[in-house]
Amino acid sequence: MLTSVRKLARAFRVPTLQDREMAYLSEANDRIDLEYRMRQVDRGMFRKSAF
């Protein structure tokens, strides 16, 4: 029962800032793309407010 509750909680959890950044970086195709994405993350691409 407890494991099913944990699975349910994981399914509805919101990804953290670090999770989103790592997912974005892991989608890089090559080193140049990775460096470009790293610069964007360093500039605060995921930290900007929507408002």
TrEMBL record:
InterPro entries: DUF3563. This is DUF3563 domain-containing protein. It comes from Neorhizobium lilium.
